[in-house]
Write a structure and sequence with these properties.
Elements: E1 22-26, H1 31-40, E2 45-49, H2 59-69, E3 73-76, H3 90-111, E4 114-120, H4 143-158, E5 162-167, E6 170-171, H5 178-188, E7 192-195, E8 199-200, E9 203-204, H6 205-221, E10 231-234, E11 241-242, H7 243-256, E12 268-271, H8 273-276, H9 291-297, H10 304-315, H11 319-322
Parallel strand pairs: 1-2, 1-3, 3-4, 4-5, 5-10, 6-9, 7-12
Antiparallel strand pairs: 8-11
Keywords: NADP, Oxidoreductase
Pfam families: RmlD_sub_bind
EC number: 1.1.1.133
């Protein structure tokens, strides 16, 4: 059942079984949730809930939503993701990223369901010289990282069958992200100042959704699902890059596609994280070692540029980037 992920495989998997699973997807309107909603339907019946229908900050409402659906699989793509604002909204961040995740794990355990959850590279402090392994000690620097780690620990302590995918620098064509911000600023300004001393592995929401769908298909077809290799896995595109060089690549590709820019790739000025003065501290190095995922499931993960360029081509066709030119 080994599979190797190509650059893009729309609707390439089918679950050919008599009973198709019910999947509950939270955060369906987010970057990742949007991509998951497009793909999970090939596996079974998807109940996709947005923040209004399923607010993770409301425990009673969250339990009610899960119990009404009684899903075979819970895919939690919702979360508190504003890294800087979390420093001031600590209680909210922990309620959504920690307590609610523990609640979902409890419900999954009680129903015998599988929980799929997404964690972050920001659980690490960035002091390691090489990519982080799943077994490396977590030491988050920010409230956001600490709240996400609380969710990871809650799942581990629940005893629920779970797949926790730790990833980072996520971007997709749906919703706001760093790449879209750089495209917008490149059209509006004559120069950009971007942090050059923080390094990570940019990963598209599309790739994460493809990996998720692939593994869920295998899980549902597994002879003995109780012995499926559950656990924590790092999911990230291959390679690494600084925010500065990532911005340069975004503008370089936009320029090749004929986008009129005020600030081209040569106008991106490298600065330090100290110069940028973000509210929340970020790890200087947060690359993830994906060997456990690749070896366990025989999955190939493309270089970060492959996903970025594909995503940019999709973004550049959106109305917000095609309605006007900048001279």
């Amino acid at each position: 059942m080994a599979k190797n992920l190509p650059e893009h495989r729309p609707n390439s998997m089918r679950v050919d079984v008599e009973v198709r699973p019910t999947l509950l997807l939270t955060g369906c309107n987010g970057q990742l949730g949007f991509e998951l909603q497009q793909r999970l339907a090939i596996l079974g019946r998807v109940v996709a809930l947005d923040r209004v229908a399923c607010d993770l900050a409301q425990p009673a409402a969250l339990r009610k939503a899960v119990r009404e659906v009684r899903p075979d699989v819970i895919v939690n793509a919702a979360g508190y993701t504003d890294v800087d604002r979390a420093e001031a909204e600590t209680e909210q961040a922990f309620a959504i990223n920690g307590l609610a995740v523990g609640l979902l794990a409890e419900e999954a355990k009680a129903m015998g369901s599988l929980l799929v959850h997404y964690s972050t590279d920001y659980v690490f402090d960035g002091r390691k010289s090489g990519p982080y392994l799943e077994v490396d000690a977590a030491n988050p620097l920010s409230i956001y990282g600490k709240s996400k780690l609380a969710g990871d620990l809650a799942i581990a302590q629940s005893g629920a069958h779970a797949l926790v995918f730790r990833t980072g620098w996520v971007a997709g064509m749906h919703g706001p992200n760093f790449a879209k911000t750089i495209l917008r600023l490149g059209r509006e300004r004559h120069a950009l100042r971007v942090v050059a001393d923080q390094v990570g592995g940019p990963t598209t929401a599309e790739l994460i959704a493809e990996v998720t769908t692939d593994l869920l298909a295998r899980y549902w077809q597994f002879d003995d699902r109780q012995s499926f290799p559950f656990g924590l896995y790092h999911v990230a595109a291959a390679g690494q890059v600084s925010w500065h060089d990532y911005a340069v690549e975004v503008l370089r590709h936009a320029q090749k596609r004929g986008v009129a820019l005020r600030a081209g790739p040569e106008h991106v000025v490298p600065i330090s994280a100290a110069d940028y003065s973000a509210v929340a501290p970020r790890p200087a190095y947060s690359c993830l070692d994906t060997s456990k995922l690749r070896k366990t499931f025989d999955i190939g993960l493309p270089d970060w540029k492959v996903g970025l360029l594909r995503m940019l081509d999709q973004i550049l066709h959106l109305p917000e980037f095609t309605v006007r030119d900048v001279q």
